[in-house]
Predict the structure.
Amino acid sequence: MTLAAATELATATLATATNENLANLSNMLIYSAMAVYTLAFFAYIVEWLFGSRSKVARTAAALTAGPGQAKAKAKAKGPAVTVKSAGGTTVLERPEVVVRSSAGARDVPDGPGAHGGDEQGDLYGRIAVSLGVLAFLVQLGGVIARAASVQRAPWGNMYEFNITFSTVVVGVYLLLLALKKNVRWLGLFLTTTVLLDLGLAVTVLYTESAQLVPALQSYWLIIHVSTAIFCGAVFYVGAVGTLLYLFKDSYESKLAGGGKPGRFATSVLERLPASASLDKFAYRVNAAVFPLWTFTIIAGAIWAESAWGRYWGWDPKETWSFITWVAYACYLHARSTAGWKGRKAAYIALIAFGCWLFNYYGVNIFVSGKHSYSGV
Amino acid sequence: MSKTPTGSTTADGTPAPVPPGEEELGAAGTQLSTAPAETAVPGSFGGNRAPGLAGGLAWTGREILGWARWFWRQLTSMRVALLLLFLLSLGAVPGSLIPQDGTDAMKVEDFKEAHRTLGPIYDKLGLFHVYSSVWFSAIYILLFISLIGCIVPRTWQFVGQLRGRPPGAPRRLTRLPAYATWRTAASPEEVREAALKVLGQRRFRTDLTGDAVAAEKGYLREAGNLVFHLALIVMLVAFAWGQLYKTEGNKLIVEGDGFANTLVQYDDFKSGNLFNDDDLVPFSFNLKQFTGTYERTGPQRGTPRVFKADVTYSVGAHGKEQKATISPNHPLQVDDARVYLVSHGYAPTVTVRDGKGDVVYRQAVPLLPVDGNVTSQGAIKVLDGYRNARGETEQLGFSAFFVPTFAGAGKGTMFSQFPALDFPVLALTGFHGDLGVDSGLPQNVYQLDTKSPKLKQFKDDKGDIVAARLLPGETMTLPNGAGSITFEKDIKEWAGFQIVQQPGTGWALAGALAAIAGLAGSLFIQRRRVWVRAVEGADGVTVVEMAGLGRSESAKLPEELGDLAALVHDKAPAQTDADPDREPDAGTSVPAEGAEKK
Ligand code: HEM
């Protein structure tokens, strides 16, 4: 046996001094959040169902309108024209800005969202969002109770990581909604996966409330892991956007090529934003969080330096963080490389997110390394 | 390479199919980024080959130059950079799945043992040391050559742009992604003055040429991008430097013992290729006390809570003695060297006496833990000073098994129940003869070669093996007056330290921080251009047109243009004509056509 490194010090988690009541409270809150998410899930479903009543075919209309017409149909965005009536004369407060889609892109309008313009659908959509807010608060309470019960940041094992992760995913979504971004269409997809994530957490990954081993007691843990979770959540939102972009893009291509997509595809995809908007959304989300991901890796390196005596040692977790980082760099590069924009870049983004997922689940479960503290 | 052919690039600076009417953007649309042009010139210049040797040579020279240039352009193109980035991430994968020499040499041995055919193949491919293998190095070296080849011209190009002026307005502003227009009673000159002022206040670089104001903002984006890529180079160099000069060694120290930082004192030692013995930082330290506390109750009973090593150290040969505490995450730093606490265990003190009762050995013997509860194993070797009952010189060896917390007699297990010293028990069996230490072969200090024919196990009269489970203070008597061994009450602990020296860490960190800053600039700042044109229309009324161009991803452009337009509009308000319903209509763009540059 060689002189075992800090790995050994880090193979398990400490217990007691933990407040059992708080731990139980946390569990209860997590289960309650799951119940509310389930209600939100059904509300979103109802929104989509009502939405399917309205038969909009905006994409098809725009694509078949012919190039001349499409160009003339520039949509007005940005500051609206405010018309103030002063003593009978009309004064324009600010000039109107006309927006054209960039060269080469299809000029397709965004879909109306899951409710498809249907009033009842919209109502259920709003209910779903409200339920989402409630579930988010309950879940957040669960995470905080967990943190209080262990008296540390709640990211010591995969169970805690999972519940925090989905809280942040929903938080990011709600934040985007609060910023008046057009993202409500993400609701059903996110709620579904949040439920799956929580289900996995409470069944497979559940770990008793416990304290950390000395190797994990560092404020860099808080910085490194919190940013890692946040980045993961945002990357996930980006990946959902990317996936939907791919669907919507092939739908548009099919229409533009004179094909006739299936009824279900039409019904769902017509209500999503235009592929160009989805693409931009995914790019912005990914690009916005990439510097933070870079920082996460660097914070990890600083922690490794103080814990293990080297800032980079190609430990599996480090390696996969690096791979994920390079993959996202690839994606950003691809978007500025001729011949790689659009779908190809989107595939790279999905691969990059796959790397992130593998780094999180795969490496913890299949590969042993210094990071195998997770208690799985 | 600062001029890209007019009209063949989009806002991204890369060629795209040009829709009809798009050509008019002209130079205005170019160079929103300094990405390298995607057109790779063919390598061969062809050309005439003059007869004779001179002609042949000249031709060959031209060809070589041409192809070299072609190769260089390929290498420094975005496409190849992308490919190399791809390869880099792909190449990093096997190292995370196959055991690596650098991280766990034992696992590599096990792997080779288990995979007789695959092992040698992997070995040949360098898969046991991926990150220092030839092919992995080739990928990142090519990538970094490509990076340098990309960065240098881009930097010049960017400097050129900074010194030049914002490109002039395209002929037809209506073609741009964001556009606004109105008619005003103000004169064209007044409008342009107002526009210059508004844009200047908003920190645009402005330029007035002809009838239009050109403005550009967001140069920090490009600067950030260049800083980011440069920082990558700094990080790589710092990392490589660190690897070449790195040293890393381990030392196990029992409480009360010490260590001086010289090569001979290490238990094991690794160093980079360019490391020199003199580079070791001169310092020494003593381990005063190791403290480990463990969780006493709950489901996670037994897991460690606190580890710390109290040491005294001094720098240089005669430095002043200083106190310090080393714990996980809190290494001791002495100049470039850092001392990490990486492991711990127990070192029971034993006393060996010969048949006459004279003490021949007394020492705290470090034993190696085999499980989380610090069940420990090791060997006690009495190499000289011992004579057996017949007065012959012999060596003694004991294989030792130690538990800090014994389960209790009759519980059927000799595995520790808890990591702290609650109920320590030492189990021993003894050997005598020749330990084989003098044979010249390297020996593991923690193991006895019990299979050696020269080593005989102590047995009693009936031929049973002599073994004992001792409590602190108890003694095991060896048969036939061979002496005794005592398990003293003074049980020490030992701590394992890793001493690391890696230069360049500060540079790596600086590079990393610069990279983040550059990246943030590159991704969060938008580079965009705004043009304001004011001309007198056919009816004598001034027509103002404003248009903005950014990269395709920029969402804020129309809003920003709206804000700017409102500001200019304040100074040159829209004319309230006789026809109040008349609105600048996007679809028809009548005024725009009238305002075309003459
Ligand atoms: C070491 C590997 C490299 C990494 C990790 C890397 C990473 C990145 C990242 C993350 C971006 C996105 C920033 C943005 O979109 O503005 C970027 C942009 C860029 N990179 Fe790299 N890069 C690398 C190598 C290279 C090389 C070799 C080249 C030259 C061929 C290059 C040229 C560029 C250019 C021109 C941009 C800006 C593209 C634009 O303005 O849209 N990079 N790089």
